[in-house]
Amino acid sequence: MLQSLWMTWEAVFEMITPLRSVYQSQYGICKIVVRTHRGSSIRCEDGTCIHKGDYVCEIHLDNREVLELSRTVGADRAALVTARRLRDALKHIGHAVDTKPELAKVRALTGITLLHRGIIHGLGFELHPLETKWMNQVSTIYLRLLLRMLNPDGAKRLKQQRSKLVPKMLMMTRGALVNRYASGGKV
User: Fold this and answer.
1) Where is the YkoP-like domain (predicted)?
2) pTM for the full model?
C-alpha cells in the first residue's frame, strides 16, 4: 500500500520535472534532468569550478525499476544489479554528454544519495557535503523514507546504521565523465 502510494507520488513528480528542467531523458536505470546549479560555487578535484547558473545534469535512479528488482531478486541482490546497471547507464550518459548538442553546456553530473558508501563505490564520483542545513535535513528525511519504501530491510538498516546514512552530493565533472565512460577509459 505505502509503496504504491510512493510510486504515485513519483509519477506526479515526473509530470512536474519538465517544468523545472532544460532537458530530461532516461538511460537504463537512470533518469537525467538538466538544470542550472543554484548553489554556491563548488571546486572539483580536477580543478573545474561549478558556479551558480552553470548547467548540471542531475542523475536519478529509476525507483520503479529498483523496487521491482528488490521484489524479484531480493534487496541484497538488487543492490548488486543496480550498481551494475548504474555503471552501464553511466556509459550511455557519458556518450550522450559527449555527443548530444542538447547536453553541450553541461558542466557536471550531480546527484544526492545516502548510498555513497555502497552502490556508487568505484564509479568515479566525488563526494561533497550538502550546502545548507535545510537541504541536508530535507534530503535526509526524503532519502531515509525512500530507503524504507524501496528496501524491505530499510527500517532495520536505518536503526543499525543511522549515523552512517547521511546524504552527500555526488559530483563528476564533464571531463571526468567523458574520459571515464564515453571514450573507453577506465570503468
Assistant:
1) 2-181
2) 0.77
137, three cell numbers: 535535513
Q: Residue 107 is part of which domain span? A: 2-112+121-131+169-182
Per the structure, the count of domains in the chain is 1
Specify the long-range contacts of residues 69-77, CB closer than 8 Å, at least 24 apart: 70/150, 70/151, 70/152, 75/151, 75/152, 75/153
- In the structure grid, which three cell numbers stand for residue 142, read together? 526524503
Question: Does residue 21 fall inside a structural domain?
Answer: yes
Number of H helices, E strands in the chain: 6, 8
Half-sphere exposure (Cβ direction) of 107: Cα atoms closer than 13 Å: 18
| 101 belongs to a structural domain | yes
Please indicate, yes or no, if residue 67 is contained in any of the structural domains: yes
State the 10-residue block means of pLDDT for the chain, 187 residues long: 59 58 88 92 96 95 82 82 92 96 96 68 86 66 64 58 69 96 68
Nearest alpha carbon to residue 59 among 147, 177, 186: 177
Burial (Cβ within 10 Å: 0-12, 13-18, ≥19) of residue 45? exposed
DSSP-based helix, strand, coil % in the chain, nearest 5: 50, 20, 30
Identify the residue whose cell numbers are 556508487: 120
